[in-house]
């Protein structure tokens, strides 16, 4: 039995980056031998075990064979006679196909170290084109390592294009695709993720609405995404920024964003903010000119009484978008002031006057509208 550190831990150590997760591969062992040494089996599709003390994952060396469509369409074979080189060749990129032994010696049968130095993301073998998920993974690695100068090799991009044209991307589950998309949007250069998908034709298959948006105003959208990363925003901000103008495309409306979110099984927080941004970025830009009744309706749609953070997230999206256009977003102060005005209207004061039920609701609306009218007069003086 021989145990090797593999994949990302080796890659990131050689790059001088922090190593967070460590993957181990075991060569020359059987399931029975692993269990006899105290490892706990956890893998359903292939033999993966938890170390009895560290809890880290150890996988038996394995080969794989394409057996169907999509990410899960593979048959795995694990046995003591599978070599380390056979295990490594099934991996996606050369920089992820290196191993390290107990003495720290790097085993690099496919040129991963040279590609690290050349700053190239290159596939290990033609079998790369058998797994559609690798299109998303390579684009995600491109987003992560773009600040270090990494680029996707031309022949690898060609294989990604072949996958995009094959229909295999459509076999990916929405959940698996979103996992990769969400991780990539949180990388250092999410704009590179989107542009890489577009270059290989995958964006049109996975996010056709975003692809259409990039045809109209691609440079601005990518600039906004990069600024989101520079400001270290969270995922809902980045997702809403990406979809901000989808509803403005010809033939689209706010339902287009809802359809995209449902199709992609996007989490609720990302869905809610992207819809609010898509629907209200236009009216909010004219906030100071809106009648108080219209402004009150918008604030209530944001639910500023119970969820004031949603407006703050919206304002952050608009601030970043304005910055990408070389301007600022002066509506922030007005919308915050308006929000404070309506939040200062306390239901308890009206209840003390005897209002309750439907009458209380009507009185609250009237008081909030009056507060907005007063705020607007004072603001414009």
Automatic annotation (TrEMBL):
Please list the residues that bind ATP. 8, 11, 91, 137, 140
Q: Which annotated residues bind Mg(2+)?
A: 21, 23
Query: What Pfam families is this protein classified in?
Result: PolyA_pol (PF01743), PolyA_pol_RNAbd (PF12627)
Main enzyme class: transferase
Per its UniProt record, the required cofactor names are: Mg(2+)
Where is each tRNA nucleotidyltransferase/poly(A) polymerase RNA and SrmB- binding domain found?
149-213
Top-level taxon of the source organism: Bacteria
Binding residue positions for CTP: 8, 11, 91, 137, 140
Q: For this protein, what is any one GO molecular function term?
A: tRNA binding
Q: Which UniProt keywords apply?
A: ATP-binding, Magnesium, Metal-binding, Nucleotide-binding, Nucleotidyltransferase, RNA repair, RNA-binding, Transferase, tRNA processing
One GO-annotated biological process of the protein: RNA repair
EC assignment: the record states 2.7.7.72
Query: Which residue windows are transmembrane per the record?
Result: none
What is the catalytic activity of this protein? a tRNA precursor + 2 CTP + ATP = a tRNA with a 3' CCA end + 3 diphosphate; a tRNA with a 3' CCA end + 2 CTP + ATP = a tRNA with a 3' CCACCA end + 3 diphosphate
Q: Which residues form the Poly A polymerase head domain?
A: 4-122
Q: What does this protein do?
A: Catalyzes the addition and repair of the essential 3'-terminal CCA sequence in tRNAs without using a nucleic acid template. Adds these three nucleotides in the order of C, C, and A to the tRNA nucleotide-73, using CTP and ATP as substrates and producing inorganic pyrophosphate. tRNA 3'-terminal CCA addition is required both for tRNA processing and repair. Also involved in tRNA surveillance by mediating tandem CCA addition to generate a CCACCA at the 3' terminus of unstable tRNAs. While stable tRNAs receive only 3'-terminal CCA, unstable tRNAs are marked with CCACCA and rapidly degraded.
Return the similarity comment: Belongs to the tRNA nucleotidyltransferase/poly(A) polymerase family. Bacterial CCA-adding enzyme type 2 subfamily.
Classification via HAMAP family: CCA_bact_type2
Misc. comment: A single active site specifically recognizes both ATP and CTP and is responsible for their addition.
Q: What is this protein called?
A: CCA-adding enzyme
What is the scientific name of the source organism?
Pseudomonas matsuisoli
């Amino acid at each position: 039995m021989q145990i090797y550190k593999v994949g990302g831990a080796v890659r990131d150590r050689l790059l001088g980056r922090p190593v967070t997760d460590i993957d181990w591969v075991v060569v020359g062992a059987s399931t029975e031998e692993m269990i006899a040494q105290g490892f706990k089996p956890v893998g359903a599709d292939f033999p993966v075990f938890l170390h009895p003390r560290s809890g880290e994952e150890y996988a038996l060396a394995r080969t794989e064979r394409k057996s169907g469509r999509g990410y899960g369409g593979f048959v795995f074979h694990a046995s003591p006679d599978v070599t380390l080189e056979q295990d490594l060749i099934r991996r996606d990129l050369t920089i992820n196909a290196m191993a390290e032994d107990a003495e720290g010696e790097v085993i690099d049968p496919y040129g991963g170290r040279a590609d690290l130095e050349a700053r190239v993301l290159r596939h290990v073998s033609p079998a790369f084109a058998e797994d559609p998920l690798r299109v998303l993974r390579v684009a995600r690695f491109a987003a992560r390592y773009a600040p270090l100068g990494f680029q996707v090799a031309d022949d690898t991009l060609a294989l990604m294009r072949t996958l995009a044209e094959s229909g295999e991307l459509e076999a990916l589950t929405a959940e698996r695709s979103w996992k990769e998309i969400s991780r990539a949007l949180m990388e250092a250069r999410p704009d590179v993720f989107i542009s890489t998908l577009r270059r290989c034709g995958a964006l049109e298959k996975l996010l056709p609405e975003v692809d259409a948006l990039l045809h109209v105003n691609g440079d601005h959208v990518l600039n906004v995404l990069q600024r989101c990363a520079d400001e270290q925003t969270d995922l809902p901000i980045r997702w809403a920024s990406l979809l901000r103008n989808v509803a403005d495309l010809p033939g689209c409306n706010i339902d287009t964003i809802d359809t995209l979110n449902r199709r992609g099984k996007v989490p609720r927080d990302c869905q809610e903010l992207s819809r609010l941004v898509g629907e209200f970025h236009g009216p909010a830009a004219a906030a100071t000119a809106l009648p108080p009744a219209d402004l009150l309706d918008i604030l209530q749609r944001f639910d500023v009484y119970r969820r004031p953070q949603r407006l703050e997230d919206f304002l952050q999206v608009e601030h970043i978008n304005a910055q990408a256009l070389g301007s600022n977003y002066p509506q922030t102060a007005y919308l915050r002031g308006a929000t404070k005005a309506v939040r200062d209207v306390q239901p308890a004061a009206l209840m003390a006057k005897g209002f309750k039920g439907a009458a209380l609701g009507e009185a609250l609306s009237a008081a909030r509208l009056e507060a907005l009218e007063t705020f607007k007069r004072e603001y414009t003086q």
